[in-house]
């Protein structure tokens, strides 16, 4: 069990023990809060309820829908265990193939679990197709929708799901996770990672593993001092790299949101409207980044400009 998951596990186990298990669940929380890890463990607990013996890995009755490799070359990399680029969306074809599986009985027992990670990234046709399964779920089929931004899901999908909300993790718990999983990080780096993570251990680990400390410091400086001559934004683009992958782009947006959210608590009342507007625009970028083909250089300049627009005026 991951740190901070005690509450959601209690709710899940209570549901398993109830006479009528709800058929669709929305696992909501910050990126990096361990929702997918929970989903896999929860799915195993769900299908084990029928009393049959079940394999610990590659279970035929646990279907996972996520981003596929972007092309045949990237598919080869995946099969070889190498890092690979993925498609931006979960497609309607993936949903339809899953629905074809639902016309048959589960392979080993009486239950089947379908995990969609992240459900936020389903294309429109995929969402509409999934809705049909949620409206008339086959007997023994249960859906776990992993979502970082529940507002991106169709209201009709949200209304058919029971919510499991993943809380923020305490600073001390994240520090323990970093010491265990990123022993190369010194205390100063861990402190910065915790401050930037906003309660997400995954974000803190990304901070260390992607070496985001300098990016973080530049964002803090832009927000504190502004950037009238664009020099800090130029340094921000240089630190981001010429061709950052989508994971680094998403991490940079989340980092900027965290920096801005942390500054709001200390900002004067008069500065609140512009900071709130900038945070709203960063949320928009976060929602668009998985599906829009952003130029990486323009994306990081947009992040820097939003932070500069929210900078505290200097005397």
Automatic annotation (TrEMBL):
Entries under InterPro entries matching the protein: DNA_Rep/Repair_Clamp_Loader, P-loop_NTPase
Annotated PANTHER family: DNA POLYMERASE III SUBUNIT DELTA, REPLICATION FACTOR C / DNA POLYMERASE III GAMMA-TAU SUBUNIT
One GO CC term on file: DNA polymerase III complex
Comp. bias intervals (Basic and acidic residues): 73-82
Coiled coil: none
GO terms, biological process: DNA-templated DNA replication
Protein name according to UniProt: DNA polymerase III subunit delta
């Amino acid at each position: 069990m991951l740190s901070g998951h005690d509450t959601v596990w209690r709710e899940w186990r209570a549901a398993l023990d109830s006479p009528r298990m709800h058929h669709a669940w929305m696992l909501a929380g910050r990126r990096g809060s361990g929702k997918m890890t929970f989903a896999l463990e929860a799915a195993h607990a769900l299908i084990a309820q029928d009393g049959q013996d079940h394999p610990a890995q590659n279970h035929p009755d646990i279907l996972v829908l996520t981003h596929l490799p972007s092309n045949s070359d990237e598919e080869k990399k995946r099969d070889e265990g190498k890092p690979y680029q993925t498609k931006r969306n979960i497609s309607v074809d993936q949903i339809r193939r899953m629905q074809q599986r639902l016309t048959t009985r589960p392979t080993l027992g009486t239950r089947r679990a379908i995990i969609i990670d992240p459900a936020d990234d389903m294309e429109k046709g995929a969402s509409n197709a999934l809705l049909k399964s949620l409206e008339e779920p086959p007997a023994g089929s249960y859906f776990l929708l992993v979502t970082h931004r529940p507002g991106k899901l169709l209201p009709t999908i949200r209304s058919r799901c029971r919510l499991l909300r993943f809380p923020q993790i305490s600073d001390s718990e994240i520090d323990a996770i970093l010491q265990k999983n990123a022993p190369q990080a010194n205390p100063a780096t861990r402190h910065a990672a915790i401050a930037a993570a906003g309660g997400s251990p995954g974000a803190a680990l990304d901070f260390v593993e992607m070496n985001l400390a300098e990016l973080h410091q530049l964002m803090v400086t832009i927000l504190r001092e502004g950037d009238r001559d664009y020099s800090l934004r130029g340094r921000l683009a240089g630190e981001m790299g010429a061709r950052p992958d989508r994971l680094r782009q998403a991490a940079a947006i989340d980092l900027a949101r965290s920096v801005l959210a942390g500054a709001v608590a200390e900002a004067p009342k008069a500065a609140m409207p512009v900071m709130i507007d900038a945070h709203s625009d960063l949320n928009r970028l976060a929602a668009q980044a998985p599906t829009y083909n952003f130029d990486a250089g323009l994306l990081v300049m947009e992040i820097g400009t939003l932070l500069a627009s929210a900078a505290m005026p200097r005397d």
